[in-house]
Amino acid sequence: MLKRCIGAGVPMLLAVSAAWAVTVTINHATEYQTIEGFGAHGSQNVWWSGGPFADASFVTTIVDDLGLTMSRNEFYPDFEPSNENGDANSLDFTKFNFSGEFVTKQKIWIDAMKAKAEQSGEPIRFIATYWSPPAWMKQNSSTVGGDPATNVLRTGVENELAEYGVATVRAYKERCNVDLYALSMQNESAFDEPYNSCVYTATRYRDVFKIFGARVKAAYPNVRLFGAEDMLGRWTVSGAFPGAIMSDTTSRRLMDAIAVHGYSDGVNPTPGADAPQLWNRAYTNMRSTGKPLWMTETSGYSNDWSGARGTAEAIFEALKYGKVAAWVWWQLAGDHTAGEILMPLGQRGKLFYAAKQYFRYIRPGAVMVDVNSDDTLVFTIGFNHKTNHTLTLVILNWAGSTKDITLSGQSLPSFTAYRTSSSDNCTNAGTVTTSASLPANSITTLYGTNYNPPVAVAPRVAGMPGLVAGPARADVYALDGRAAGRAVAVRVDEQGRIAWDARQTGLARGSYLVTAGGSVARTAVVDSR
To answer: Checking DSSP bridges between strand 326-334 and strand 293-297, what pairing results, if any?
Structure first.
């Protein structure tokens, strides 16, 4: 799945592998996104069942073994079955429905997870999404769909939906003593479904969100707003939903994270052959906004080694190429064995262990650093947690043979190796210092403690105070002024000379005008040879 050639701007991953030893290079000075969490939707059982929704053993498995740090759930529209007082500017919280599913079902899960997280000293961030506004706010007077023309928010109730957003955050706080971490106004906004759903165009979503976001932020400025939870593969160059949100000053300010789903159509996962280029496109579109990118739902992988491998790839691609800060599976557990369930029948399986390779050892606050291998079938990512003083490397050896790796980097710690393969289930594989052997077709996580690399201070470029020596990003123009490339990876030396490998950029040899240095832009004429 990862063995293919893809377009410019993304490393080429070829179906051939070197026979010599592999060097994995860690450059802690080059940093990317900060991780906010890994998680899943739901509880011990699906909400549309009779439970149980939490017991001590299951919650311990999720927090202490899997390492889940983000819990996503639908906030049900039965919380306000009718307009509580007819005044969108005066919320009467006593009139909301406290005998519905949020209190009778979800509170059980939230309370149990919160208590276990506090006992274990682990972070848990609760995030909520609307699948539909309350029925009385909809043109079809129903929470479910069937006709995309009427499965929409009624005109004139935008402020009521915003009030409902405030009530949602308040419900978590007053009923569960939880500060809701993040809230999404609508799940998969483009799809009309026979279950709870609501259809928005990109511009309608943006306009409603501006009202919704302003009201929620006024009442709860610390809650993070994310959206629009559309498909990764539907994100065009300008991006329908993200493009509409980010091109508007108000909605851009209010939206804290752009979230996409890792599907091609809402059901089937993004094809592995397409994922690196799609994630790279999403990251390229987002990086200038300063907003993090989240993946808030995916599934469709079988609970065997083949599915575990696909899941490991999906997480890797989102982290490596999309620079995502949050990654969330669809259903956590349930009473059946379909590919939408991370823990079928509530049991640990191959999907569980593939996810654990990331969830357990990459903790919130970890920063992705630059890690690369010189073998085209050995894929690497790394995370430095400066508070915990840990370095975590996740390495996929997709070759059909064992690979001997050597680690190269400054002040590297010793690591404990954990491995999942067709025969291993996140098994402790011993201690690693500077070298290790990776079995064929395996996922290995190297978890190092007491990691204290030297603080990198990049030298300033003489005469160009906006630049520092080392890796940088630049906008490139032909000498006639036409744009030739944006966010091109370049390297700056201490004399201010900027260079890159033309084979990696797709640019022809010649002289170009390059602007770099962030907000303090500087220019220089360089040669790409």
So the answer is: parallel
